[in-house]
Design a protein that fits this description.
The chain has about 400 residues and is α/β, with parallel strands linked by helices. It has 14 helices and 13 strands. The protein folds into two domains: about 230 residues, Alkaline Phosphatase, subunit A (3-Layer(aba) Sandwich), CATH 3.40.720.10; about 140 residues, no CATH class. β3 and β4 form a beta hairpin.
Length: about 400
């Protein structure tokens, strides 16, 4: 257990407080032109602005300055787990997110359907974001692949995403992705970085060889790329290190997997933000800590659609009164990383963060945006310390030392 977790474990204090951590995935942005406004600064957010006027603002660094995080490290930091210490493969998160029971001999992989052109080069890394109705039968076909000495499981996740699990003794999880993160080039070959992982890479190469034949007539989803190849690591639970009963309200499987990884109860969240808010209200008396996840600020940023991201932020803002009506002791609004529409990708930029509680020191903030957060009283700090603020404002930490 980390030094930080040993401290929170020692200082835990029980009470009846309620904490809500609302994560707008990829929240941070950039202006399209120098001196312009970001998506968050452009959006009409009266409810977030009102919350800011009774809270304290700042900017969080998901990993360390200058490092662009994936969603896994970004969320682990928000949960108070140092992402440099707890490095979790995305395949593990996807598998846990669909309730796949990973065992000690399992290697989990996130798969993305993609489109190959006649020359075998990638023309679309997400196969046109094919629907679940198209992708699920393709996963069923891939699940028929046989590899001697290895059990192979293929399960659909959502749209173009799937989970592949290889089960056999002696497999390692240190295998490079086959996604080159570019179009106009062929997929990469799987490469293992130690002896056990080289065995996994050989299994993956054979799986991909058979998959190309299985999917050859299924354009646009006529191949797949493998990402986040990993085994499940040991990790202390959220309740153990913080003394709270945590519930997670997330729609997308990966984020449900992240919550399950740290021991949160994953609650049925429906499909919409209103569904999530209704679930929050229904479960209010059953948990002390709630993690709520909103995906679409990230996906619109990755699509490079500035206006759509603005609208998604406004959609999030409209849900805030449903949360505050429950009178939580602490509300935190932040993101796991920045996804500027200008860049069409995750970025290293610090993430807007707000803590609202009766014990906040007012920092003269009048709104919630990157520029407001830059001037906020929290300053800039590593995301792994956010849970300390949450617990302190909730009165859940004893004094340290005499």
């Amino acid at each position: 257990m980390s030094e930080l977790h040993n401290l929170t474990l020692k200082l835990q204090k029980k009470n009846d407080s309620k904490i809500v951590l609302l994560v707008a995935d990829g929240l941070g942005g950039l202006p399209l032109t120098p001196g312009g406004k970001t998506e968050l600064e452009t959006a009409n957010t009266p409810n977030l602005d009102a919350l800011a006027q009774r809270g304290t603002l700042g900017l969080t660094t998901p990993v360390i300055p200058g490092i662009t995080p994936g969603s896994g490290p970004g969320h682990l930091g928000l949960f108070g787990y140092d992402p440099l210490e707890y490095q979790i493969g995305r395949g593990v998160l996807e598998a846990l997110g669909i309730d796949f029971d990973l065992g000690p001999n399992d290697v989990a992989i996130r798969g993305n359907f993609c489109t190959l052109d006649a020359a075998g080069n990638i023309s679309d890394r997400r196969a046109g974001r094919v629907s679940s109705e198209v992708a699920a039968p393709l996963c069923a076909k891939l699940n028929e692949i046989k590899i001697p000495g290895v059990e192979v499981f293929v399960q659909h996740v959502k749209e173009y995403r799937l989970v592949v699990v290889f089960r056999a003794a002696g497999l390692g999880g240190n295998v490079d992705d086959t996604d080159p993160q570019a179009t106009g080039v062929p997929p990469l070959a799987p490469v293992g970085n130690d002896d056990a992982s080289k065995k996994t890479a050989e299994v993956a190469a054979e799986f991909l060889r058979q998959a190309r034949e299985v999917l050859k007539d299924d354009a646009p989803a006529n191949f797949l790329m493998l990402r986040g190849i990993a085994k499940r690591p040991p990790i202390p639970t959220f309740e153990e290190v913080y003394g709270t009963r945590p519930g997670a309200i997330a729609v997308y499987p990966m984020y449900r997997g992240l919550a399950r990884l740290v021991g949160m109860d994953v609650l049925d969240a429906g499909q919409t933000l209103d569904d999530q808010c209704a679930r929050l209200k229904a479960a209010w008396n059953d948990y002390d800590f709630f993690f709520m996840h909103f995906k679409y600020t990230d996906s619109t940023g990755e699509d490079g659609n500035f206006d759509a991201k603005v609208k998604r932020i406004e959609e999030l803002d409209a849900a805030i009164p449903q949360i505050t009506a429950l009178d939580p002791t602490v509300v935190i609004v932040t993101g796991d990383h920045s996804t500027p529409s200008k860049m069409k990708a995750h970025s290293w930029h610090p993430v807007p963060t707000m803590i609202a509680a009766d014990t906040c020191r007012f920092d003269n903030s009048t709104g919630f945006s990157e520029s407001d957060c830059l001037r906020g009283g929290l300053g800039q700090f590593p995301a792994k310390y956010l849970m300390g603020f949450a617990l302190a404002h909730a009165g859940r930490l004893e004094k340290f030392g005499a």
